[in-house]
Structures are given as C-alpha cells and as structure tokens.
Design goal:
CATH topology of the largest domain: Dipeptide-binding Protein, domain 3
Shape: globular
Largest sheet: 6 strands, mixed
CATH architecture of the largest domain: Roll
Number of strands: 21
Strand order of the largest sheet: 14-18-13-17-15-16
C-alpha cells in the first residue's frame, strides 16, 4: 500500500510540473496587426505589419536594439571584421534549435543569406555582399564587394531559416504553418486574413518566454480595434490618436506615446502624364500642408519631416532641399506648367481605414486649392503595396521604416532594386546614374562625415525630382492592460519575449 501511495504521489508531482495549474503564465496574450499577413516568408516582404510579427518567430545573426542602437547577439554569438573591412566572420551560436527540432548549422545561415540575395523585397539589405561561405559547422564568412559601413545595421533585417524546412515546403513556404525559425515563439495555427496563433518555444536558447501563448487578429479599422481593446479582446494595442486623451486619462489602461523610426510620405509617379511635367510636381510639393496632415492623422503629435529619414538615423541629412507649404508658390508653378488653368492629375492610392487615408484626404483638398483635381482609391494594404512597387499609381500616400541608417532607404530608389522601389528613376527623365553612384559611395566609406556629405547630395538629388515628398515621422500610441508588464515599448517592433503577466 505504501508503494502505491508513493507512486501516486510521484505521479501527482509530475503532473503539477508537466501541467501547471491555470494562472497568469498560461493566459493567452491577444494582439492585433493593422493588416492581414501577406506571407510568413521573411525574405518575401518589406511590409512593416508582416515584420512586426516575423520578429517574434525568426531571428537574424545580430539584432539591433531599436531603443539603444546596440547590436545584440542572436544566431551568431560574435563577429570580427577584416582589416580591409571586406570580410565579416560570424561565429554561430552552438545549441540553437529551429522550431522543427533541428540544430542550426552554418549551412542554414549560408542558405538563408543566399536566398535573401535573390529576393527583390530584401536583397537591398545585402547590396554589397559578394560571397557567403561556411568555414565549418559554426563559422560563416561574408565577403563584400566593397566596404559597407551599414552592413551590420542591414543584416539585422535578414532572418535565418531552416534550410530543411524551406526546401521541404518548396513553393508553399510562406503560405502555411512553418517551423523554420529560431525565435522565442513558433506558429501553431495560421489563417492569414483571419487570425494566427503562437506558442512559446520551450527549447529557445535564451530561455522560454514568460508568456506562453499569443493570438493575433488583423484589424484594419481604427474604430474596430479600439472597440476590441476596450472590450478586453486585446491586451496591447496601437491605439487611434483621436482617442489618446481618453485612453491616457482612464486608470484602466497603461499608455505611452513613442516616436517611431518611420517616415510617412507622398510618392509621385512622374511616368504618368500630367505628372511628367516638372512644374506640376513642384506645384504638388509646395501645395502639401504638413501641419494639416499631422493634425488630421495624429492630432499634431507627429513630427513634421523635412527629409526622408529621421535625424537619429546614421548619415541622415539635416539640411538641403526642403519643400514647405506655400500655396502661392504652388499656384505659380501651375501657371508655368502646360496646364496653367489647372487639370485632372489622376488618382491618389492609399491603404484604407488608417491614417494614410486621412493623408490622402488632406492631399486631395490641398491640390484642389491650386486647381489640381484628383480622386482617392482606397485599397487593402497588400494590394496597395503591390501596385506601388509596380508603379501602378499616380499619387501615393504611404510610409516606410528605416532601420537606423540612411542606407536603408536604398531599396526605395536605387535602380537595381526593381520590385522594391516605389519610383522608377531609370530612364531618360533623370540622371539616375548619379543617384546610383551616390548610393554606392555612401556605403563605401566608414568616415561618418563623408557619409553625411554624400547622403546630403543624394537627398537633394531625390528632392529635386519632386517624386518622394516627406510629410512626418509618426508616433506610436501604445495602450495596454495593467496586468501586462511591458518593460520597453520600441519605436516599431515590439519584443513580446520581454513581456510578462503581472503577478497578483
């Protein structure tokens, strides 16, 4: 009888450890994105809503902390750089497992980087890479064709994948459940347009996450998201700025306003008449009331932008060609154009339901004031981006998130980045080779003063075309429930691994 009782006691103890009693640690964290997932493949997208989620399940060699700017080891535990700044040697962390249980090896790193080099969506991050090679199972060298002062910064955007998982799924990779990551969470269910769930990865090399379950839903309408948050369906939310004061003054919530590393801008497709008229584009540039857009979109809490990168980004210009609101000058340029009495200039494309739609409405009104008439085409986010990257638009209200260095803007204009850029500069209209040369020169020197000088010239060149017009750097109005502990709210990409449920 004693043996039976002892066996029963052991069984009960094991059950307690194997199946913890329901409590805070087992509670599901409910989150939302502002758009459905376009893909699970991190090499097939530059959409920030995709990346926000991908950051929870995939990892790069080294992670750049948005709050501190420092590089933190992830897949690689250390690196060294050759004297000529052309070869980076990464020492791969031993003991890392993919979510499929396979050990990560150097071959997976080589496969991932070479795969990313073939992707139009992310290859700009590896623009200088000439060769990737495994020296052994835990050492990888990356040889550059020219020195790249932004390389450590840019590799942060390339996720390392399981070669086995990707090759087994083939063309379906990115469309279905995958265990190809090494991050703190792994996918457990997936419906791109409806919902997806994750669980904490027990074998994560930094230790299992405190929060064990994640549930995501895409909510494109600000009002619907607010209702979901206030009703308790969401635990953490990027709130509508129009409701910010009410949320901040409500003791039921925790709130923080964080300036994002982001630029909201207007793109002008000069290939579509009458936008090929230089004077029409200059008229548009001076007609835009940034203050009105800021108020309409963020109640004036955003930071008006003179340039395409926030000043905190390495190499970002702080002086040069700037367009400020001047309706009289805008009308003068209309009079100088081939359409002195004004004209229809096409359609403004924007993602529906968010602040880009409000930007488009203000832009439409600004242009009507100077005799330029246009309609608004409200699209789902994925369709809008796909059309933009194929230059199937007249005017476009959109945004991008630099990753800490001016070099990150390369993909939006460099002529070899077809499939990623929004404006196609290659052709007879502009001296695009000068622009390309400046991009190449900017990363070829490690001297920060030289880089800033080069990028200032580059910024002026792009501004002179009046095709990419910076509007503001948005803010992130974060709101969450008091039973959730969020040590740091990052400018763009939340790190759910750092979060936990508050102890009762």
């Amino acid at each position: 009888m004693k043996k039976v009782r002892m066996a029963l006691l052991v069984t009960l103890v094991l059950m307690v450890f194997a199946f913890p009693a329901p409590g805070a640690e087992e509670r599901t964290l409910n989150l939302s994105t502002l758009a459905p997932l376009t893909t699970i493949d991190p090499h097939a997208t530059s959409n920030i809503q995709d990346i926000i989620f991908h950051r929870q399940i995939f990892e790069p060699l080294f992670f750049q902390n948005e709050a501190t700017g420092k590089y933190e080891p992830r897949v690689a535990e250390s690196y060294s750089i050759s004297d000529d700044n052309l070869t980076y040697t990464f020492n791969i962390r031993k003991g890392i497992k993919f979510h499929n249980g396979e050990a990560l090896k150097a071959d997976d790193v080589v496969f991932s980087l070479n795969r990313a080099l073939k992707s139009s969506k992310v290859r700009s991050y590896l623009a200088s890479v000439a060769e990737v090679k495994a020296l052994d199972d835990y050492t990888v060298t990356i040889r550059l064709g020219q020195p790249n002062a932004a390389f450590l910064n840019s590799q942060n955007m390339i996720m390392i994948l399981s070669r086995k998982e990707v090759e087994e799924q083939g063309d379906e990779f990115g469309t279905k459940l995958t265990l190809a990551g090494t991050g703190p969470f792994y996918l457990t269910s997936l419906q791109h347009d409806v919902e997806w769930t994750c669980a904490a990865f027990a074998d994560y090399y930094r230790g299992a996450a405190a929060i064990k379950k994640l549930h995501y839903v895409p909510i494109t309408e600000a009002s619907a998201g607010l209702i979901a948050f206030e009703s308790g369906e969401l635990d953490w939310y990027i709130a509508p700025i129009a409701n910010w004061d009410a949320l901040t003054n409500n003791p039921k919530y925790r709130t923080e306003l964080v300036t994002a590393n982001h630029i909201s801008y207007v793109a002008v497709n000069y290939e579509h008449p009458p936008l090929n008229d230089d004077n029409i584009r200059l008229a548009i540039a001076y007609a835009i009331d940034k203050d009105a857009m800021n108020i309409a979109c963020y109640d004036g809490n955003a930071v008006n932008a003179d340039f395409m990168a926030p000043p905190e980004n390495t190499g970002a210009p702080t002086k040069g060609v700037v367009y400020n609101y001047d309706p009289e000058k805008a009308r003068e340029y209309v009079k100088k154009s081939a359409f002195p009495n004004g004209t229809k200039i096409g359609i403004i494309n924007c993602s529906a339901g968010g602040y880009f739609e409000k930007m488009a409405q203000v832009l439409q009104s600004n242009l009507a004031d100077i005799g330029l008439i246009c309609d608004i085409n409200r699209l789902d986010s994925a369709t809008n981006l796909e059309m933009a990257r194929n230059q199937k638009y007249d005017l476009l209200c959109t945004g991008l998130s630099p990753y800490g260095d001016y070099e990150s803007l390369r993909m939006y204009s460099y002529t070899k980045m077809k499939g990623a850029y929004m404006v196609k500069y290659e052709g007879e209209k502009f001296d695009y080779k000068t622009m390309d040369d400046l991009w190449d020169a900017g990363i070829a020197t490690t001297d920060l003063g030289e880089r800033e000088t080069i990028y200032s010239r580059l910024s002026d060149w792009i501004a002179g075309t009046a095709t990419l017009l910076p509007i503001f750097h948005k803010v992130q109005p974060y709101a969450w429930t008091p039973n959730l502990v969020v040590p740091v709210n990052y400018p763009n990409y939340p790190q759910v691994y750092e979060w936990s449920w508050a102890k009762k």
